[in-house]
């Protein structure tokens, strides 16, 4: 009997600067066989996320680096196609953090079962998953926006940013988004209800930003860092709060770039800036999921997905994050389920 | 009858870069005459402070700029030499924020009476005044150091830094100071009980700093900014807190200098950084004074003063702050009291 084969995506090189397709290697392997308490999972959707760029670098960080010539790992949705656990049966849909592979074997304890009738299953990789939770805790716990304040969000049309802006609106603030195309600006204002949005690729960006901020900035939710953040920071009000979620502008910069020192301004304005990762909120995640689920059901939260079809296009989808090709959450559709009806 | 004359120090120019003696102008004026509810004050001691450099610049900040050809103002200790208020009598010692002048007239409501028997009166311009309170709230409220953590203080031998380090020791932390001479290093370790101290003027500074921080940095109380802070920030632990009190390294830099962007590292370490000024704690000042007074009486807080003699040397004393010539609080002794016995 011939073992069945599938593919996984390995890290072929540690990229210097912007990663390329050559940094990823598709390797054929035997489909693994589940042991006691394990299940065999068929991957349906993969999540590609900017933070993964950091894990490609061999440096100490809050999560260990990816290993060379080993499968990359990330958030995914999968269908149970074989179960040796009492907790799962064929056709169950689960979310977990597993290898970028067409199939995975996993212990039942590592899996979270998803109710496919409650929302689109992909919501569990976006608004109800790490993305939505990152927006929820990063905005509310760190920046605590108050009704009437001005909240600025960079990377506003991205997965996290688009949720941040909507939560800020729910809290009664004035929300100004920063994004990189006129289509995204239109989307933020007309689809998501942002009060204003500014295109950072325009020559008039700094002027446009100032015009969009007649009352300055009370809260800045920062996904990007770099020059964009420098421009926002110049407009901070007294007692401003900055929630640092990402710095995508520098993820592919090996040197560590230079920017204006901000200490003097932070003193003058009593500004607080804090970085975070979702791990800081491990104990509070259920409360976040509950709040996001409720807002989603009440129609107060919209979410968009950019879905690339085909496992072979996963590297392309990942690289697109750094070019801003995605609107909302970037996902890869790997396969349809065999047993589940979605 | 001829009016009596005295001198005040006016801002002659808005300095560009490092101020010089030429930026100050000594102007002779008539000694003012107190009206109803006012007193005439003879200045005994003046406080010179780094934050005053910011007020010499014509920019919006948390306090308005000094006016050209008007007297500079600052913290001072004075003796009541004539009183038209029921609240004060000749020989009372008061602290207030008034003109850099040999005499001031002030409304009684603006003055705080000092008990000259409780502590040396100059303590009210240092450990029990704005200096001590700045150390107290900036360290405890913003950084909340926990026993066993490592606290780094820059400008450690200065007025604020030396108090910060001692409060951090009272809280059971390991304290590492940064200062600019071997005498200061010796003072921090052998007089104030710091666990370690590093001279930033040595070529081996970065190496020495790393060696002094075997367990990294949990709290950084920053008086200086610039390269020194860059070096400390590279050693931050997860969940580090940075209290931004001053950025003296850039106060005389008109361009706004560049430094490594810190957002990425703050995200990896979930670091929090906050600027403050003492005005943020206006309602809580009495609690701070009470705590500092108690520690002082218990012998847990030492404070040092560098006292320059003579009103005419006030500009020199101020300029010395940027050269690090002071150990502890820099004061100017203007005159002896006429009536009070100290």
From TrEMBL, chains A, B:
<dbReference type="InterPro" id="IPR020843">
    <property type="entry name" value="ER"/>
</dbReference>
<feature type="domain" description="Enoyl reductase (ER)">
    <location>
        <begin position="19"/>
        <end position="332"/>
    </location>
</feature>
<dbReference type="Pfam" id="PF00107">
    <property type="entry name" value="ADH_zinc_N"/>
</dbReference>
<dbReference type="InterPro" id="IPR045010">
    <property type="entry name" value="MDR_fam"/>
</dbReference>
<dbReference type="InterPro" id="IPR041694">
    <property type="entry name" value="ADH_N_2"/>
</dbReference>
<keyword id="KW-0560">Oxidoreductase</keyword>
<dbReference type="GO" id="GO:0016628">
    <property type="term" value="F:oxidoreductase activity, acting on the CH-CH group of donors, NAD or NADP as acceptor"/>
</dbReference>
<dbReference type="Pfam" id="PF16884">
    <property type="entry name" value="ADH_N_2"/>
</dbReference>
<dbReference type="InterPro" id="IPR036291">
    <property type="entry name" value="NAD(P)-bd_dom_sf"/>
</dbReference>
<dbReference type="InterPro" id="IPR011032">
    <property type="entry name" value="GroES-like_sf"/>
</dbReference>
<dbReference type="InterPro" id="IPR013149">
    <property type="entry name" value="ADH-like_C"/>
</dbReference>
<protein>
    <submittedName>
        <fullName>NADP-dependent oxidoreductase</fullName>
    </submittedName>
</protein>
């Amino acid at each position: 009997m011939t073992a069945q084969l599938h593919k996984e995506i390995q890290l072929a090189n540690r990229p210097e600067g912007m990663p390329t397709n050559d940094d990823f290697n598709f390797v054929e392997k035997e489909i693994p066989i589940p042991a006691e308490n394990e299940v065999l999972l068929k991957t349906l959707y993969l999540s590609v996320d900017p933070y993964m760029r950091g894990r490609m670098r061999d440096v100490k960080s809050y999560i260990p680096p990816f290993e060379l010539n080993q499968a990359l790992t990330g958030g995914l949705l999968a269908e149970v196609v074989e179960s040796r656990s009492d907790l799962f049966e064929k056709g169950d849909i689960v979310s977990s953090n597993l290898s970028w592979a067409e199939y995975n074997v996993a212990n039942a304890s590592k899996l979270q079962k998803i109710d496919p009738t409650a929302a689109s299953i992909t919501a569990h990789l976006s608004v109800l998953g790490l993305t939505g939770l990152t927006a929820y805790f990063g905005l509310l716990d760190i920046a605590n926006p108050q009704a009437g304040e001005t909240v600025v969000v960079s990377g506003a049309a991205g997965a996290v940013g688009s949720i941040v802006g909507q939560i800020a609106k729910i809290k009664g603030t004035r929300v100004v988004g920063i994004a990189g195309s006129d289509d995204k600006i239109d989307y933020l204002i007309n689809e998501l209800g942002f009060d204003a949005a500014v295109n950072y690729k325009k020559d008039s960006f700094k002027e446009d930003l100032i015009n969009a901020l007649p009352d300055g900035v009370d809260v800045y939710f920062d996904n990007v860092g770099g020059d964009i953040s420098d421009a926002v920071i110049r407009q901070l009000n007294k007692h401003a709060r900055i929630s640092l979620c990402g710095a995508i502008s520098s993820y592919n910069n090996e040197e560590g770039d230079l920017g204006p020192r901000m200490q003097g301004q932070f003193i003058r304005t009593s500004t607080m800036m804090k970085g975070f990762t979702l791990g800081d909120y491990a104990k509070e995640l259920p409360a976040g999921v509950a709040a996001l689920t409720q807002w989603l059901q009440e129609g107060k939260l919209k979410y968009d997905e950019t879905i690339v079809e085909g496992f072979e296009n996963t590297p392309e989808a990942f690289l697109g994050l750094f070019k801003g090709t995605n609107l909302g959450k970037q996902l890869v559709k790997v396969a349809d389920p065999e047993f589940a009806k979605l």
